[in-house]
Amino acid sequence: MSEPLATGPFHGGRVAEQNDRFRRSFGADPTLPGRIVITQGVAALGAAALVPLMTALIRFDDFTEDNDPFGLRDFGAFEIEAEGRAVRLYWKIDLFDADERFGSEAPDDPDRTRRVLTLLLPEEW
């Protein structure tokens, strides 16, 4: 039987664990289908920003009640150096059905859920 999606702050259970695995593998964990999407603003940072961006995303662990009120580990913000300046980025994981058309009805079931992690600039939110 699957665990509930969330029962209050920081009780995301299986969904939180799966979101962490997906993010930390940069979408390369074959047991958690999904993809990584970057916005035009992030793409404009150039190829040199990709390594610090990926490193910051994979290492992110600054979850608080403000940025993760349901304990799902599906959002975060961090800064990287790009072109000699500090750039703030957001990331967000959305959970879709297997066809990526609607929200997943079983977010803790990897066979029925596709994760889409979007990296974006705050002004693109």
From TrEMBL:
UniProt protein name: DUF3768 domain-containing protein
Pfam families assigned to the protein according to its UniProt record, in alphabetical order: DUF3768 (PF12599)
InterPro entries given in the database record: DUF3768
Species lineage: Bacteria, Pseudomonadati, Pseudomonadota, Alphaproteobacteria, Rhodobacterales
Organism for this UniProt entry: Rubellimicrobium roseum
